[in-house]
Design goal:
The complex is a heterodimer of chains A (338) and B (292). Chain A has a domain of 230 residues. Chain A has 15 helices and four strands. Chain A has a two-stranded antiparallel ribbon. In chain A, a hairpin with a 2-residue loop joins β2 and β3. Chain A starts with 5 loop residues before the first helix and ends with a helix. Chain B is globular, with a radius of gyration of 19 Å. Chain B has a single domain, classed as ABC transporter involved in vitamin B12 uptake, BtuC. Chain B starts with a helix and ends in a 15-residue tail after the last helix. In chain B, β1 and β2 form a beta hairpin. In chain B, α3 crosses α9 and α6 runs antiparallel to α9. In chain B, 73% of the residues lie in helices and 3% in strands. The longest helix of chain B has 29 residues. Chain B has 292 residues and is mainly alpha-helical. The chains are: A mainly alpha (338), B mainly alpha (292). At the A-B interface, α6, α11 and α14 of A face α4, α10 and α12 of B.
């Protein structure tokens, strides 16, 4: 068999070596819910859900180079689409999910509009403003409906089967994460992905070689926002409860941290970062048990402090994130070999 | 009634102006947007909680010591953290400040617990309500805040115009490379700018805490002061005052006539309008803006 051309290798979703690895990983992931206990299964669910969101943000910030502080607002928009539609209209899941996607796409267009005029810092700030507006509407809805804490969402049911078990959710999230991964990888290997990476590096160059900068910027915002809104919608069903308190700026920062800690501009980074950020509080909790009771009792404050510290350390010492560390380790091992 | 509204606008504008000046000082000197400013202000309030228990008898000493600690805090933030971000992208620097803000939130709760503190009561100081005109009242702490804001802006104006360090700070902001070539120690100027920024923020935090207690939500006020600074133009002190007045008016009007829930949104609505129409702000300089 003749060797694949460099271009074919470049655009291939999987090469032979990683195909085998992918099959092994998928098999392990399929077996996991049958061997893991309830706690581990819940952790896995949280990580997989976060992977969807962090992949979406990685696409926008890591590859298209557009900074957004609107992640929590977009997740909230998806969650509230589900919450309001199923609470007020009793809409079934095959209505609410497309609706959430539509809301996400529309908001993506709105969130992306400032990017046509603004860049960098100013873009980040305008998306921050939009975050507060979305959150305001969520809070306003809760007050209007006189809901003290938030709204409850019935579990989604398809053809009479209600999705309630954690194991069922695991497969939904796994499918969602794999699908998102596929979409992201597929976009990145295409003309679109190359256009995004060019405009991330230098917009002037991008427009000079004929890339419609405005269109591709908006496109990145729309794709990323749609995925985020869908993640928010799944979150609403999974927790069967939506409250605006869950969508604070802290959530936005957590997603940003996933992208940074994982490694900006890398797909595996989004996955590693999501796992790291979701698992960190559990590590802290275990660590807090060893501390004196006065400090150990304030786990959430420890979470904040540790999270901030880890983020600072990564930004200062390893801006390429976990992927950067992995690459360095691999290089060191390669050198050590005879 | 309507006179009370005017007083409310003036007090809120003074809060935003006093907090916002810190954003402007750091941005003007080093082009870094400090999103931990609200948290640093909150730490300032807790510094007063700490000194209040040490110097319970003398409020003035307690406030002065806490303000000095606030100054030192800013210098430490620069030396230990922001100095290492030189040459990195603007985004990385902003992210570091965001992370710092979260770290500070955690540390404050670890040090002081999540309960609310009332430094005024701890210092034995009574926050009286003063009648300004018929029917319009202002708390003593708010009046003090207004006075301090005027003094800070006046002093800053004189400092930047007439002192050696002030001129160095402006020069560094205009062109860091040229400033360094002329023998200005950039690190010292930046460290000073950070110290000045947290010094004013700490004073703002303390005065707010004297009025309504020190608690974790204070950081939100700091974040809301940011639109005020940007509306005026992030590198303009006059702009910070004008922006604060505009944002305060819009916010009080929205609370009064539309919906109290809007209070957290209005500053950002104003900000979005300004970003769409005139992204460099009312008084900001245009050239170095990150525009497409």
């Amino acid at each position: 068999m003749e060797a694949a051309s460099p271009y074919a290798r470049e655009v291939a979703l999987l090469d032979r070596a990683s195909l085998a690895r992918t099959i092994v990983v998928l098999a392990a992931l399929a077996v996991l819910p049958f061997v893991a206990n309830a706690f581990l299964l819940d952790l896995a669910n949280q990580v997989l859900l976060a992977v969807i969101g962090s992949l979406a943000l990685m696409l926008l910030t890591g590859f298209a180079g557009q900074i957004s502080l609107g992640t929590a607002g977009l997740l909230a928009a998806g969650a509230y689409s589900v919450g309001i539609l199923s609470h007020d209209a009793g809409a079934p899941v095959w209505v609410t999910l497309p609706a959430a996607a539509l809301v996400g796409a529309t908001l993506g267009l709105v969130f992306g509009l400032p990017s046509l005029r603004l860049r960098g810092l100013y873009l980040a700030i305008s998306t921050l403003g939009l975050h507060f507006i979305v959150v305001y509407f969520g809070g306003e809805y809760e007050t209007r409906q006189q809901l003290a804490t938030g709204l409850t969402v019935d579990p989604p049911s398809v053809l009479g089967f209600a999705l309630t078990s954690d194991r069922g959710w695991y497969f939904v999230f796994l499918a969602g994460a794999c699908l998102t991964l596929l979409i992201v990888k597929n976009l990145l290997r295409s003309r679109t992905g190359r256009a995004w990476q060019t405009l991330r590096e230098r917009e002037v160059v991008a427009s000079a070689i004929g890339i419609d900068v405005q269109r591709y910027k908006l496109y990145a915002f729309v794709v990323s926002s749609t995925l985020l809104a869908l993640a928010g919608a799944l979150f609403a069903y999974f927790r069967s409860f939506v409250s605006i308190d869950a969508f604070s700026l802290y959530l936005t920062v957590q997603y940003l941290a996933m992208v940074i800690i994982g490694g900006m501009g890398t797909v595996p980074g989004a996955i590693l970062g999501a796992a790291f950020v979701i698992l960190l509080p559990y590590g802290i909790e275990a660590f807090a048990a060893l501390l004196p009771a006065r400090v150990g009792n304030m786990v959430f404050a420890l979470d904040y402090a540790a999270f901030g510290l880890v983020m600072i350390l990564f930004l200062l010492f390893e801006p390429r994130g976990l992927v950067g560390i992995a690459r360095r380790l691999a290089a060191a091992r390669g050198k050590g070999r005879p | 009634m309507s006179l009370q509204l005017v007083v409310n606008v003036v007090v809120l504008a003074a809060i935003y102006a006093l907090v916002g000046v810190g954003y402007v000082v750091v941005y003007r000197a080093s082009r870094v947007l400090n999103l931990a400013h609200g948290e640093l202000m909150m730490v300032g309030a807790y510094l007063l909680v700490g000194t209040a228990s040490l110097f319970a008898g003398s409020p003035v000493v307690a406030v002065l010591v806490a303000a000095l600690c606030g100054l030192v805090m800013g210098v430490i933030v620069y030396v230990a953290l922001m100095r290492w971000m030189t040459g990195q992208t603007v985004l990385a620097a902003v992210l570091v400040t965001i992370a710092l803000g979260i770290l500070l939130r955690g540390l404050v709760v670890l040090g002081f617990t999540a309960q609310q503190f009332y430094p005024a009561a701890m210092l034995g100081w009574r926050n009286q309500s003063i009648e300004v005109a018929s029917g319009a009242r202002i708390s003593a702490a708010s009046a003090m805040l207004l006075a301090v804001t005027v003094v800070v802006y006046g002093a800053l104006f004189l400092f930047l115009r007439f002192t050696r360090l002030g001129i160095q700070l402006r020069a560094t902001g205009q062109n860091a490379l040229l400033a360094a070539q002329r023998g200005i120690g950039l690190n010292a100027v930046y460290a000073f700018a950070w110290g000045l920024s947290t010094f004013t923020a700490s004073i703002a935090g303390m005065l707010l805490a004297l009025d309504s207690g020190a608690e974790g939500q204070m950081a939100t006020i700091g974040l809301k002061a940011f639109p005020a600074a940007l509306v005026g133009g992030l590198d303009s002190f006059v702009g910070a005052i004008v922006g604060s007045i505009i944002v305060a008016m819009a916010e009080i009007a929205a609370i009064q006539y539309v919906n109290p829930l809007l209070s957290d949104v209005v500053p950002f609505l104003v900000l979005l309008v300004v970003l769409a129409v005139r992204p460099w702000g009312l008084f900001g300089s245009r050239e170095q803006l990150d525009r497409v």
